[in-house]
């Protein structure tokens, strides 16, 4: 019989000497994603579609579901005694948890907000960091390579839960009984690919290295790269990363010239770090077009970063192009 998430986590923990408290935190995240999924599935019938009428610290208009998913995660994780603190894309500041907690959970409660109202795949992304001592802002500012676990729930045609505890990447599918069941126990991103993902409408704002790279891809078989590339853009990072884990590819959200104070659109702590750990665990690579994302020392909770992740040959090629152009 197929193994459910709880049984898998127990076995995985004993095979790799993983702390039981961390497993408990992972179960709380997964249970909350099941509850979020139930609301997503019902859409208008659950009153979750549309604007919340508020904004977040990122300067974005919040959708009802951004707020609902955030509140569900905050409440559930504050109720877990192993969680010392939380940080969320939708919260201005970090939120305190329990004084004896050993873990910090950082999350993008609802990724792909622009897709909520049009019934396209969305998700929840999470990152778990270790914690000791007094809780302060500095406690959260750990590089991505310190993450003890990360993952996402994908609310698509199927609801999936994808995780890593630094010993591989595993995929679970939500069944009729609202239980996550293991459906894939290896994810391996091949080094080469013929598929890229970038929001082409921003092309004129990119740096010249990115302009050249994408122009080379568009040349096709007879061009410099000698291949016909295909392009995809879902506008939900969670769906793009899932596609890359399933069939390889390269995903990019580069910084551009519109707002030089921002180093890109995506958030280091809630999006780039957790996704980078998954991708690296699956044999792929992840950089900000110059250095490995997981090595970046964060300066702030809501810090933004350029992202290039996926198949190693492409990520190295893009990164090399940027490094040599400076
Ligand atoms: P969020 O909905 O959590 O704010 O994140 C949206 C992000 C990411 O999921 C996606 O890759 C990107 O924004 C889409 O951006 P465009 O609207 O520029 O396509
Ligand atoms: Mn947002
Ligand atoms: Mn997001
Ligand atoms: Mn979000």
UniProtKB/TrEMBL annotation:
Mg(2+) 1 binds at residues 89, 108, 110. InterPro entries: FBPase_C_dom (IPR044015), FBPase_class-1 (IPR000146), FBPase_N (IPR033391), FBPtase (IPR028343). Residues 190-320 form the Fructose-1-6-bisphosphatase class 1 C-terminal domain. Pathway: Carbohydrate biosynthesis. SUPFAM superfamilies: Carbohydrate phosphatase. Pfam families: FBPase, FBPase_C. It comes from the Bacteria. Keywords: Carbohydrate metabolism, Cytoplasm, Hydrolase, Magnesium, Metal-binding. Substrate binds at residues 111-114, 199, 265. GO terms for molecular function: fructose 1,6-bisphosphate 1-phosphatase activity. It is an enzyme of class 3 (hydrolase). Binds 2 magnesium ions per subunit. Its EC number is 3.1.3.11. Mg(2+) 2 binds at residues 108, 111, 271. Residues 10-184 form the Fructose-1-6-bisphosphatase class I N-terminal domain. Its cofactor is Mg(2+). It catalyses: beta-D-fructose 1,6-bisphosphate + H2O = beta-D-fructose 6-phosphate + phosphate. It is found in: Cytoplasm. Belongs to the FBPase class 1 family. Homotetramer. This is Fructose-1,6-bisphosphatase class 1.
